[in-house]
Design goal:
CATH class of the largest domain: Alpha Beta
Number of domains: 2
Order of helices and strands: EHEEEEHHEHEEEEEEEEEE
Strand content: 25-35%
Distance between the termini: 32 Å
Oligomer: single chain
Structural class: alpha+beta
Strand order of the largest sheet: 1-6-5-2-3-4
Radius of gyration: 19 Å
Number of helices: 4
CATH topology of the largest domain: Nonspecific Lipid-transfer Protein, Chain A
Largest sheet: 6 strands, mixed
Number of strands: 16
Helix content: 10-25%
CATH superfamily of the largest domain: SCP2 sterol-binding domain
CATH architecture of the largest domain: 2-Layer Sandwich
C-alpha cells in the first residue's frame, strides 16, 4: 500500500548515567533486525504505556514494510507488550518513512530520528518523515502522542540520552541542528552557526507564534530581534517574544553553539 500524504514537519531553528547502555551497532543491518532491536528496547520504556499502532516503510529495501503494535499493557514479566509485524498496519494509520541508509545511521547513533525529520517548512526534503496511509485522518491528539513517541521509540537505553555535535546534526534553517526532544508545547535543539552561516535568512521563517529562548554555549553570534541587533555571548540567554521577527548570523571565526527552546501554545 502506498503512503501518499506528508503531514508532520518538525521545525527547529545530557549526562548522568545510572545504567549501562546497549552497544551501538557498527555495521549496516537488515531492516527487520534494526526494528526488532528498537521494539525490544521500547518494551522497557514507560512511554509504551499508551496504546498505538504505526507503520515503518523503507522503500527499496529487501524488507520494506512493517508495523508496530503497542497495546499499552504489561506482560507477566512486567514488560510492555510491543510487537513487530510484517506489512503496513491493517487499518489506515501513520507511517514512519525513510531510506535504508538513514535507518542504519539512526541504528548506529549517527543521527537521531527527530533530527532526521527536521525541516524549516513542509516543502523541504527530510531523510525521515511521517506519512499517512490513504483513508487515515489524524485526531486532535496526534501530535501529543507521536512527538514524544518518535523520541522514545527511536532512542534506545535508559535513561535516554541524545548526543549533540556537528557530526550528528543536519543543516536546518541555515544552522547545523540536532533536535533534542519534542512534545506538544515544547521543542528543544542544539545548534551551531559557523562563520558565514545565517539562521532564518528567509523572512518567512523569522516569526513564531510562541516564545523562543536561545542559550549561548560557546562562540559568539550576531542576532537581530524585533529590528534590534545584539551579540549573543557564551553564558547568555536571549528571549524572543511570540510574533517577533528574529535571525542570527556568525561573522566571527569561531563557530557559535547554542541551545534552542521553543515552548507554549503552538510549539
Amino acid at each position: 500500500m502506498r503512503n501518499n500524504q506528508r503531514w508532520i514537519a518538525l521545525s527547529v531553528f545530557s549526562v548522568f548515567v545510572v545504567q549501562s547502555f546497549p552497544a551501538q551497532p557498527t555495521a549496516s543491518r537488515p531492516v527487520g533486525q534494526i526494528l526488532r532491536s528498537f521494539v525490544e528496547d521500547f518494551r522497557n520504556d514507560p512511554a509504551a504505556n499508551t496504546r498505538c499502532i504505526f507503520g515503518v516503510s523503507v522503500p527499496g529495501s529487501a524488507e520494506p514494510e512493517w508495523h508496530v503494535v503497542v497495546t499499552g499493557r504489561k506482560d507477566a514479566a512486567g514488560r510492555f507488550e510491543v510487537d513487530l509485524r510484517r506489512g503496513l498496519p491493517p487499518e489506515p494509520g501513520a507511517v514512519y518513512t525513510t531510506d535504508l541508509k538513514t535507518l542504519n545511521k539512526i541504528d548506529r547513533g549517527e543521527l537521531n530520528a527527530l533530527t532526521a525529520m527536521g525541516r524549516a517548512r513542509m516543502s523541504d526534503p527530510a531523510p525521515m518523515d511521517i506519512t499517512f496511509m490513504p483513508g487515515y485522518t489524524p485526531g486532535e491528539d496526534f501530535l501529543a502522542i507521536f512527538l514524544p513517541l518518535t523520541f522514545h521509540f527511536w532512542t534506545r537505553g535508559f535513561p535516554e540520552t541524545v548526543s549533540f555535535s556537528p557530526a550528528v546534526g543536519r543543516e536546518v534553517h541555515g544552522a547545523t541542528m540536532v533536535v533534542l526532544y519534542y512534545q506538544k508545547g515544547l521543542r528543544s535543539a542544539w545548534g551551531q552557526i559557523r562563520k558565514g552561516q545565517r539562521v532564518n535568512a528567509d523572512p518567512r521563517d523569522q516569526v513564531n507564534p510562541f516564545p523562543t529562548i536561545i542559550i549561548g554555549l560557546r562562540g559568539r553570534a550576531m542576532s537581530k530581534v524585533g529590528g534590534v541587533e545584539k551579540i549573543l555571548e557564551p553564558g547568555q540567554m536571549m528571549f524572543v517574544p511570540p510574533g517577533t521577527a528574529h535571525e542570527a548570523w556568525n561573522p566571527f571565526d569561531e563557530p557559535a553553539e547554542f541551545i534552542l527552546l521553543m515552548f507554549g501554545e503552538g510549539a
